TrEMBL record:
Pfam families: SnoaL_2. This is Nuclear transport factor 2 family protein. Transmembrane segments: none annotated. Residues 21-120 form the SnoaL-like domain. InterPro entries: NTF2-like_dom_sf, SnoaL-like. It comes from the Bacteria.
Length: 132
């Protein structure tokens, strides 16, 4: 994960550290590590696709999706919002399964419950270059 380009961060120091660990779990493509951040009734939606509802459904969907590329690295640009609801603007650096690097801009809206677990993620990005 890259943080050198982070211009705006409106999260508290504690939530920022939590979010870095969350993103590290994503970048590691380690499904069990990532699942520890999610509430059981979490919802994840990508672009205009129907949302994946529930932790188990999300884990199955992400496990399949993560096999379509070799690696992922978040490059943080801006984080706006509060500790319970925030949005990340980032560059996502992928390595395709054929070894070709691809970078796409992405925005992710995240909501957390009182226990600090993720209840909703809505992310918007054009991954067409990743699969071209």
């Amino acid at each position: 994960m890259k943080t050198d380009n982070l211009r705006v961060n409106q999260l508290s120091p504690e939530t920022y550290e939590w979010y870095l660990k969350y993103l590290e779990a994503l970048d590691s493509l380690h499904i069990e590590a990532y699942s520890r951040f999610l509430a059981d009734d979490c919802s994840v939606q990508s672009n205009n696709n129907p949302p994946m509802e529930g932790k188990q459904v999300i884990m199955q969907g992400l496990a399949a999706y993560w096999k379509t590329f070799a690696s992922l690295e978040h490059d943080l640009l801006n984080i706006y919002g509060s500790d319970s609801s925030f949005v990340l603007e980032a560059l996502n650096h992928y390595k395709r399964n054929d070894g070709k690097p691809v970078t796409v801009r992405a925005v992710a809206f995240t909501d957390r419950n009182e226990e600090g677990l993720v209840t909703s993620v809505r992310f918007y990005t054009d991954t067409t270059p990743l699969f071209a």
